[in-house]
Specification:
The protein is of the alpha/beta class. The protein has a single domain, classed as Alpha-Beta Complex (Maf protein). It has 6 helices and 7 strands; from the N terminus they run βαβαββαββαβαα. Strands 1, 2, 3, 4, 5, 6 and 7 form a 7-stranded mixed sheet that branches. Helix 1 links the parallel strand 1 and strand 2. Helix 3 crosses helix 4. The chain is elongated and about 55 Å long.
Length: 191
């Protein structure tokens, strides 16, 4: 008889929990306590892969008999990462940079299972419409942008600024469903 693995999501994000429920009806949640400061010279792609893996490994150390998923998302214009806005001024600067441009959202998902760490990187290209300062301030006042990478939520009010998207919407939200399911299938956790 095969061992049934309990999956632990190494994230405090309600969006990631909601997305994972599309694949797994039952899982545990435990946030990872890691330093998310980018290393000098680190690219957006390497940042998300490292952080997703560190989150999964951090929680796996506490739950070695479980399979652990970690994920991380960054919004980048070129090699410049736009994190969560520190305040309204920072947010308005982000919206000004994103307005009328293409940017990339990089999301990595990592699975630690039976001592093996696997990671998958997903890159999604997002095109924003022109955003004027009045629209940006109105959006800030909704409260939605405050805890979002790049200062917007594509699945929420921020979706009004998205003119075009090439890639995975679920990756932009925070957990790429197709790739996450592929990791779990490869490990024999789901069929």
């Amino acid at each position: 008889m095969e061992q049934k693995w309990t999956v632990v999501l190494a994230s405090a994000s309600p969006r990631r929990r909601e997305l994972l429920r599309h694949i797994l009806p039952e899982f545990q949640v435990q946030s990872a306590d890691i330093d998310e400061t980018p290393a000098a010279g680190e690219t957006p792609e390497s940042i998300v892969q490292r952080l997703a893996s560190e989150k999964a490994r951090n929680v796996a150390l506490k739950t070695p008999s479980h399979a652990v998923l970690g994920s991380d998302t960054v919004v980048a214009i070129g090699t410049t990462v736009l994190g969560k806005p520190k305040n309204e001024k920072d947010f308005l600067g982000m919206m000004n940079r994103l307005s009328g441009t293409l940017h990339h959202v990089y999301t990595a998902v990592s699975l630690v299972h039976q001592g093996v760490t696997k990671v998958i990187l997903v890159s999604t290209e997002v095109e924003f419409s022109q955003i004027n300062e009045r629209e940006a301030r109105q959006y800030w006042n909704t409260g939605e942008p405050a805890d979002k990478a790049g200062g917007y939520a594509i699945q929420g009010i921020g979706g009004q600024f998205v003119k075009n998207i090439h890639g995975s919407v679920s990756a932009v939200i925070g957990l790429p469903l197709y790739e996450t399911k592929a990791l779990l299938k490869g490990a024999g956790i789901v069929e």
